[in-house]
Amino acid sequence: MSRQKSQRIAFAILTILAVIVVVPIVLVVAYIVVQGIGAINWEFLTTFPHHGMKEGGILPAIVGTVVLTFGTAIVSIPIAVGAAIYLAEYARDTWLTRAIRLAIINLAGIPSVVYGLFGLGLFVLSLRLGTSIVAGSLTLGLMTLPVVISTAEEALLAVPQRFRVVSRSLGATRWQTVRQLVLPNALPGILTGIILGLERAAGETAPILFTAAAFYLPQLPRSPLDQTMALPYHLYVISTQVPGMPLQVQYGTALVLLILVLSMNVVATMIRSRFRRRRQW
Amino acid sequence: MNALKPRQREFFVEALIRVAGFSAILFVVLIFIFLVKEGAPAFWETSLTNLFGQRWYPNEGLFGTTPLILGSLLVTGGAVVIALPLGLATAVFIRELAPNWLREILKPLIEVLAGIPSVVLGFLGMVAVAPLVRQTLNVPTGLTAFTGSLMLAYMSLPTIISVAEDAIDAVPSTYRDGALALGATHWQTIWRVILPAARSGVIIAVMLGIGRAIGETMAVMMVTGNAARIPREWNALFLPVRTMTATIAAEMGEVAQGSTHYHVLFAVGILLFLVTFLINAVASAVIIKGGARRGGRLMG
Q1: Global pTM?
Q2: What's the domain range around B141?
Q3: Tens-place pLDDT, residues A243-264
Q4: In this complex, which of A20, A86, A206 lies closest to B17 when CB atoms are compared?
Q5: What is the CATH classification number for the domain harbouring A268?
């Protein structure tokens, strides 16, 4: 077989395999949109479920996911941004820094259900927070740390070194340099990381299974110590635990969750690309 | 804070930043401590022969984790076999074959896949993929280990593709130029020069893919049929199984706190923690040795 011929065959195979990867992604999204769009109307988004959740809307699940996502942000942003600043601006290359990096990589690898176990053991039981929004937010917040830390650190490291050199040579302290110069320039990148982390948190089910999620609640949560319904858990419940559930309601719920999560993804991508076009260095 | 002098305030802020920096270590240790605290009693409340036995019937006091461990291995193994050629080929396609405009479409699409919540994929797996599997393979139920492997393969693809892409990207362009100048075709250059040079990165991609797959919970729980049985037949891949993650997720909600069952589920959590810890530690050691990349890029 000639070399040109074997190249043609190899490239054809590569192309086919790439198509096998990409086409199902488009199909999955398109299929959920087509099947679910019919279920979505004003009532579906703004009312409580009734008749054993087979009718009505998914308002409490939407509200619950939004509340949990905010809680996650409160827990995760200060710690993650602080850690990123430490790694990018303060840490020297010592064994301790390497241990921190190893810890972050491992935090990223811990299965989400193990985060759920940890949240149950520490927040729900030992700290007596019970199954609550606080416990769920703390669990999800920990889970999102590695994603936010690593994207924020990259954003900080992307700020040119000469900015720091000039600032310090003009007599600014290290913190003044970080605060006035590095952070503002890295902000879009940090924001992208935060949104990507929250996107993951919003779609997760396993970490909130034992820490926050309720099967059904007749009212919206009133305090951070209340349980809450949540979109991903609600989808799990109505597709596995409720017999005779209308398929369209299931697809509708899946679509709402997908729109919520993917729109966060789009926002993150937009911030990133706008920033890339605008930056002057 | 405003009452403090600037110098004191700065000292205070920098102390907080330092604490945040070290917190990652604290959290890993804390997670491990709590898993052990809740999981260790399993080892004296029930015998080791029971724990590593072949039967998982918690209601009868049988806590044999062998079927769960083998179930996880089977599903994960199947996923890697599917995902490795697909992921590697796609990474090569994106880096070497695709024109710029196509690359600009493919990259965000793969990010979309990474963003789809696992419960949505699990739901779709149940209502759309499982019936397809049942009809195509003519098996009694579509909720099989294979269906789980299929879902997991796609879920680990974004990780595998992005790490493999980075690895290909990191191969010095002099290698490629040299091969092409010697008269090798583009494909020969890819196959004989670029892929071998990117080998360690590809290994990392596979390992992280495995780590991602073995810890996946919701999608696997929803499509694998949840039968805690030992896969010993030749066609076990096309029968229902149950993984470690699915067992924890499905049963933890119903057990009494402090019961043996509760402790055993935490013990399974310890095993998952250790396995993923090991995979990630080894992968990051390879990266640090290679020195080509920073740790952060791993998380995709």
Answers
A1: 0.92
A2: 40-299
A3: 888 899 999 999 999 999 999 9
A4: A86
A5: 1.10.3720.10
